[in-house]
Input
Amino acid sequence: VSIMTSSKFRRALGAVKDQTSIGLAKVGSSTSLADLDVAIVKASRHEEYPTEEKYIREILSLTCYSRAYISACVNTISRRLNKTKNWIVALKTLMLVQRLLSEGDPAYEQEIFFSTRRGTRFLNMSDFRDASTSNSWDYSAFVRTYALYLDERLEFRMQSRRGKRSAFGIDEEEDPQEPPHNYANQQSCPRATPVHEMKAEKLFSRMQHVQQLLERFLACRPTGFIQSSYHLPFTISITHAPACKREAKTNRVVIVALFPIVKESFQIYYDITEIMGVLIDRFMELEIHDCAKVFEIFCRIGKQFDELDTFYSWCKTIGIARSSEYPEVEKITPKKLEVMEEYIRDKSALAQGRKSVKALLEQQKIEEIDKKLIGTTLKKKKI
Output
């Protein structure tokens, strides 16, 4: 009874906080900015239900033509993230950020990116803790990993944009009108240099960034367990299963938050396999030290793909996206790695042998020269 009373009290307190924030927004700004602030509060209110789509659409609509409104929106979201100690508010705010980065004006990327780099800690949730309930650790952990993923994804997209401009010799100042590299909408941003045309160092750099992004995604797998004796399909549990019966990995808000980033992970996977294909095609032509780099990359990818396959299996069970949408995750078997390692050893031994032969020939040449010099010296002495 005390637990239920405490839960009701927290919900009531959260509702009061939301109403207070809405009231302050209405009196503290112009009409349009007030509407924007109110929509942000409503999109991230304390209720343990997914955000209503109409509030996100309203925010996108209010900020679609104004850089000033985008800046105001980012500032409001930043304050909301920094002030809250409630995992629901924090996660729903991050879900809003994800939507704005994916579907909003490209200026959102720049505002959030440079806001973070100026020290406002926009997506730095490393010290976030919700201590309101005994099982809130799982939720707090998910908030932290989700924020890390969004930050890494934003970093990758901004680097891709700078790299694209550099490839054409254009100034690297940010262009608000340029479409971002967006995993949610790949068609909007063609790559400047196709992967198969990239030099080895560029391939290694890109692979490192994409692998790091995949690592952040894998860390978003929620923890916890079902405390009840039943398991409801996602389509039912999203609206009817009691919140107190679920831990983080079966919580409806958490699962809705996973939907878009799981979809994005499909493209991350395809990007990695594309680079893998190019590295395999060039493997026989690479220098030994580059071959060793490729081997290390494949060892790491093998572990990541195993984790990814497990994550995808869980996502399919929960009902995140259709099973037919998921890629068939490639297995990097120990046999494949053994073949690569053996080739590197053979190539290294061959190179070492060539060095030895070259050194021997050089030594013989030196000895012949010495003999000639000695012979010439002796002849002069006899004369």
User: Anything to note?
Assistant: The chain has two domains: 1-178, 193-332. The radius of gyration is 29 Å. Residues 193-332 form a domain with the Methane Monooxygenase Hydroxylase; Chain G, domain 1 fold (CATH 1.20.58.150).
